[in-house]
Amino acid sequence: MSADKSSSWSYSEDLPAEDEVMLRARERSFELGVSAISPGVGAVLTVLAAASKAQTAVEIGTGAGVSGVCLLRGLGPHAVLTTIDVDVEHLRAAREAFAEAGSPANRTRTISGRAGDVLPRLTDGAYDLVFIDADKPGLPGYVEQAVRLLKRAGLLVINDALDKDKVANPAGREPNTVTLRQVGKAIRDDDRLSSAMLPTGDGLLVAVKK
Ligand SMILES: C[S@@+](CC[C@H](N)C(=O)[O-])C[C@H]1O[C@@H](n2cnc3c(N)ncnc32)[C@H](O)[C@@H]1O
User: How many whole angstroms from 188 Cα to the centroid of ligand 1?
Assistant: First the structure.
């Protein structure tokens, strides 16, 4: 196995062909200062949503809708995406992206608020997929909520799980890096989950609830 995987990583991030809807959502993200998921992560989200035949999904950290469009494109025609963000401008931009993607308004439930306040109000064991891409200090609590929300065989997906290669470096001691490292290990050791770390984007941690 070659030690330097960076060209394979760049190749797989450049491979997905993103359409005008995605590019406009990326432009809005940039204008709002939102860091959207990478094209490679977007492609994985669409595949996971489709392969799992998810009917109910929760997204924590809507941003300007790049990841939401990717999820909606994988979810079936009757599936509903519940997406949460604390910033109303971000939610407004995301609604524009969902409409441009041709998604009927009743397929998305956009909730404005802090995830830590909103998640406890969602129903236990009612969701097939939970995607987390919000503030890192809140992550341990979001993971616990996600496990509660997921049905058996439901998928948990966490973006930025390798934090720009900082998680892999034991000398990386920034608070967010430490949180991500601890969460990655806690999920690996959690008997309720089976997990895998994908090097896609800035790291995508995927887990299935047993
Ligand atoms: C990295 S961006 C999400 C990008 C989006 N997933 C995408 O790829 O298009 C993180 C988002 O989390 C939101 N956020 C930050 N802290 C939050 C919190 N406590 N509760 C809910 N949303 C939060 C921010 O407003 C921001 O829109």
Answer: 24
Q: Which amino acid is at 146?
A: A
Shortest-distance Cα residue to atom 25 of ligand 1: 87
Cβ(87) to ligand 1 under 6 A? yes
> Is the C-beta atom of 83 inside 6 A of ligand 1?
no
Judge if the beta carbon of residue 27 lies within 6 A of ligand 1.
no
* DSSP-H helix ranges across the chain: 6-14, 20-32, 39-51, 66-74, 88-100, 115-118, 139-149, 175-188
Distance between first and last Cα of the chain: 32
201 lines ligand 1 (CB under 6 A): no
Find out whether 122 and 91 touch, Cβ atoms under 8 Å: no
Whether residue 41 has its Cβ less than 6 Å from ligand 1:
no
pLDDT per residue rounded down to tens, the chain (210 residues): 566 889 999 999 999 999 999 999 999 999 999 999 999 999 999 999 999 999 999 999 999 999 999 999 999 999 999 999 999 999 999 999 999 999 999 999 999 999 999 999 999 999 999 999 999 999 999 999 999 999 999 999 999 999 999 999 999 999 999 999 999 999 999 999 999 999 999 999 999 999
Atom of ligand 1 nearest to the CA of 134: 12
Q: What fold is seen in the domain 3-209?
A: Rossmann fold (3.40.50)
